[in-house]
Amino acid sequence: MSDPFAKAPGITLVGGGASSAEALTRALARAPRLIAVDGGADAALAMGHLPDLATGDFDSISPRARAALGPDRLRHTPDQEETDFDKALAFVDAPFALAVGFTGARLDHTLAAMSTLLRNPSRRVILDTGHDLCLLCPPRLALSLPRGTRVSLYPTAPMRCDSVGLRWPTSPLHFAPDARIGTSNAATGGPVVLTPDGPSMLLLLPVSELDELLAALAGAPLWPDAAHAR
User: pTM higher than 0.90, yes or no?
Assistant: First the structure.
């Protein structure tokens, strides 16, 4: 683990998928230390940002990006048993990570990024798709959201998720990816409190709620590390 990244208040990760300058600027305003994941180095440079570090198996980073970063900023991690996103997270121990460029036109990349969230339940990681924020809901999350704010819940396993402050209450419903899901719910204008019974519920919010989400996550408990839970 690199000490400078361990001490950072937050980390921005940029991948090689579809990302916008707006999403990257939004992330860097809150987490200015930047790690590029493989081809994300090219994406960052194209948007005018020089990464502090680039990591991955380097099957998509260009020679131009390698030269721009120089050898001291390149961390080759060829292990094919983990995704480059997972390997990038292993470099840091910051309070949170904002990830852009891991979703977009290729659905398989989006699904892989969501799997990374599930494999890292003890980390505060938020995917910014440019339209939505996506994260693994912690054991308890209390948010203050304007009335009508979209709150989508997507279960990745059979589970329950108690809630207050939603237009359609989720207690005592049973969720499952092949049965009841909880997308397109909405805040009623008061506190929204979510308490899933396991580390399997993905939460999606509009990008306008990023600062509220970061503030709420700072005081939220974390799930045990996946390796320790097995």
Answer: yes
